[in-house]
Automatic annotation (TrEMBL), chain A:
NCBIfam families associated with the record: lao
Domain of life: Bacteria
UniProt keywords, alphabetically: Chaperone, GTP-binding, Hydrolase, Nucleotide-binding
Lineage: Bacteria, Pseudomonadati, Pseudomonadota, Alphaproteobacteria, Hyphomicrobiales
Stretches assigned to the AAA+ ATPase domain: 60-204
Protein's recorded name: Methylmalonyl Co-A mutase-associated GTPase MeaB
Coiled coil: none
Automatic annotation (TrEMBL), chain B:
Top-level taxon in the UniProt lineage: Bacteria
InterPro entries hit by this protein: Acid_CoA_mut_C, Cobalamin-bd, Cobalamin-bd_sf
Keywords: Cobalamin, Cobalt, Isomerase, Metal-binding
Organism: Aminobacter carboxidus
Enzyme class: isomerase
Protein name in UniProt: Cobalamin B12-binding domain-containing protein
Known EC number: 5.4.99.2
Every B12-binding domain range: 22-153
Length: 333, 153
């Protein structure tokens, strides 16, 4: 059994240099934006200068993170928000992250299933992204994809994280405004005062508010808010908003709250802190990644140290300092 | 196994390292064909072969599928059709790809497609047809072969 695949002469599409794509990205070409995101994801060396150039045109967009447990309704809510923002005439960008398989490296990216109507809007650009082994709720190139959309004139840009547990809060150092989406029926009010994901919310949304157990979830979250102050360094009071993406109920309130938080960040000067936070995390994250990639390419030096650590001839922190080239640090110890 | 780094947003391209990228496939159901178990099985096969599969759900128009494929920058659109309406739908899909300047995206057809329609489908832009009785690895090798011949874009 073979597949029917007639060979065609000179199959189309040569490689277009990334530098040539940049003007098209800046003028908002969907094809160029999509291709540039792929190159950031792939980590093509050839694309690095183009991405630097693109970065110089960023900093205009409002970046909104939406996070919550699997099945909370993130994709459905994002679809509703796309429609709400697009009907205001805004160009909405979406990066929807789903997990890669730890075994094959493959992925099923299903967020589009729930966004298909909204994604057809000419005002919207929706991109699914696999984590490719990255932990924390985002993919390795999520923020570069946000840069590309920002430079192309999209705002807001919504990052939908993978379905998270209690502790994947990476999105907090990626976005200006964090919406934590909770579903009703997933726990009592002690769940609501635990540390972690609920703490990072600038806005709490409770999905499926058409369901009878939704008011209890809203009450538990509102109760939590009264127990103590909100996020350190901010006088923003995070609202708790019940929403229903099915009926469309309260979606416009949520949209307004997102816009209000953006105004608050700019008026209060908090935006500056968040921008610095995002920049800092990106630099440190990239440094860590470069370090790891270097020893993935050249394993000999690493493996020598691994054996020394296994043999107890050296402890792991000394080995790490040596790999970094910090011999002086070792002597201090 | 992919990258094991964590807690870092990386600007990978900065590193000057070429990381090989998974093949991306959009799996779609066109028209009024509501039977998607086959499409889901195919999505799973491709996932297990290390590909990234964008699944779009049922009842899509060729125009919807092409718009999604462009935004997702997929290498391949895989369409499963069981309804018998493959000829007009693939013609329209090919037309939309040309219209939106997205002919670099391959089209692979599967499902119930009689052999006497193969030539007509090929003319409307279908790059490969995987017969319904094919073994699962034929889908994977067919896609890999198309991409290998094209090279990276």
């Amino acid at each position: 059994m073979t597949a029917f695949a007639p060979s065609r002469p000179a199959r189309r599409a040569a490689y277009v240099a990334s530098a040539e794509l940049v003007p098209d990205v800046l003028s908002g070409s969907v094809l160029a934006v999509a291709r540039m995101i792929s190159r950031a994801e792939a980590g093509y060396a050839e694309a690095s200068e183009a991405l630097s150039e693109i970065y110089r045109h960023t900093g205009k967009a409002h970046v909104v993170g939406i996070t919550g447990v699997p099945g909370a309704g993130k994709s459905t809510l994002v679809a509703a928000l796309i429609k709400a923002f697009a009907s205001d005439g805004q160009k909405v960008g979406v990066i929807a992250v789903d997990p890669s398989s730890p075994f094959s490296g493959g992925a099923i990216l299903g967020d589009r299933v729930r966004m298909s109507d909204a994604a057809q809007s000419s005002q919207a650009f929706v991109r699914s992204m696999a984590t490719r082994g990255h932990l924390g709720g985002l993919a390795r190139a999520t923020l570069q994809a946000v840069d590309v959309l920002d430079a192309a004139g999209y705002s807001p840009i919504i990052i939908e994280t993978v379905g998270v547990g209690q502790d994947e809060v990476e999105v907090v150092t990626a976005a200006h405004t964090i919406v934590v989406l909770s579903a009703p029926g997933l726990g009592d009010d002690i769940q609501a005062i635990k540390a972690g994901i609920l703490e990072i919310a600038d806005i709490h949304a409770v999905s499926k508010c058409d369901r009878p157990d939704a008011p209890a979830a809203v009450a538990a979250l509102r109760g939590m808010m009264t127990l103590g102050p909100g996020r350190p360094g901010s006088d923003w009071q995070a609202p708790v908003l019940p929403v229903s993406s099915v009926s469309g109920e309260h979606i416009s309130e949520l949209k307004d709250a997102i816009s209000r938080h953006w105004d608050h960040l700019r008026d209060s000067g908090e935006l500056h802190d968040r921008e610095r936070n995002i920049g800092r995390t990106r630099i440190l994250g990239t440094a860590r990644q470069l370090f790891q990639d270097r020893f993935k390419r050249d394993v000999t030096e690493l493996e020598t140290h691994v054996q020394a650590v296994v043999d107890r001839a050296m402890d792991p922190s000394v080995a790490a300092c040596l790999l970094l080239g910090w011999e002086n640090e070792v002597q201090v110890k | 196994m992919t990258d094991s780094s964590n807690n870092s947003q990386g600007d990978g391209a900065r590193a000057g390292i070429d990381v090989s990228s998974p093949i991306r496939v959009l799996v779609a159901k066109l028209g009024l064909d509501g039977h998607d178990r086959g499409a889901k099985v195919v999505a799973r096969i491709l996932r297990d072969a290390g590909m990234e599969v964008v699944y779009t759900g049922l009842y899509k128009s060729p125009n919807d599928v092409v718009s999604a494929a462009i935004q997702e920058d997929v290498d391949v659109i895989g369409v499963s059709l069981l309804s018998g309406s493959h000829l007009p739908l693939f013609q329209e899909l090919g037309r939309c790809l040309r219209e939106k300047k997205a002919e670099h995206i391959f089209v692979v057809a599967g499902g119930v497609i009689p052999e006497h329609d193969y030539a007509a489908l090929s003319d409307s832009g279908v790059d490969a047809i995987v017969p319904q009785e094919a073994r699962s690895d034929l889908i994977v090798t067919t896609i890999r072969k198309l991409i290998a011949e094209r090279g990276r874009i």
